[in-house]
Amino acid sequence: VMTTLPAFSFQVLGALQAMSRDLTEMVMSFRPSRSKLFTAMIIPAILPDILTAWKVNLGNASRVVVVAELVGATGGVGYQLLQQQQV
Questions:
Q1: Cα–Cα distance between 52 and 59 in angstroms, integer?
Q2: pTM score, two decimals?
Q3: 64-73: Cβ within 8 A, 24+ apart
Q4: 6 near 20, Cβ under 8 Å?
């Protein structure tokens, strides 16, 4: 969580900032409620970026876990890799 949360947050923030201003102004002209604005515009606009960020950060997290196990754990995939390398 500590290694992926900052990157994930910045990627989601970037997706929010990349939303089309013209589309936002057009939707706001219809005066939607907050829930309607969120479900009809914001979520569909940023969902592809959220899923991509999730996939990338899941890969990064798995690498961090394996490296952490290589360095200081007595069990897990990283520890087994280190043991097999020494044998």
A1: 11
A2: 0.73
A3: 64/3, 64/4
A4: no
pLDDT of residue 48: 96
- Specify burial of residue 18 (Cβ count, 10 A radius: 0-12, 13-18, 19+): exposed
Three-state DSSP at 66 gives helix
Which residue matches tokens 């936002």?
24
Q: Which residues contact 4 (CB under 8 A, 6 or more apart)?
A: 57, 58, 60, 61, 64
Enumerate residues 6+ apart whose C-beta is below 8 A from 8. 53, 54, 57
- Give 12: exposed, middle or buried? Use CB within 10 Å, 0-12, 13-18, 19+: middle
Rounded-to-integer distance, Cα 30 and Cα 13, Å:
25
Task: Please identify which residue in the block is written with the tokens 């876990």.
Answer: 65
Query: Is pLDDT larger for residue 28 or for residue 73?
Result: 28
Q: In sequence order, what are the residues at sequence separation of 6 or more whose Cβ sits closer than 8 angstroms to the Cβ of residue 12?
A: 46, 49, 50, 53
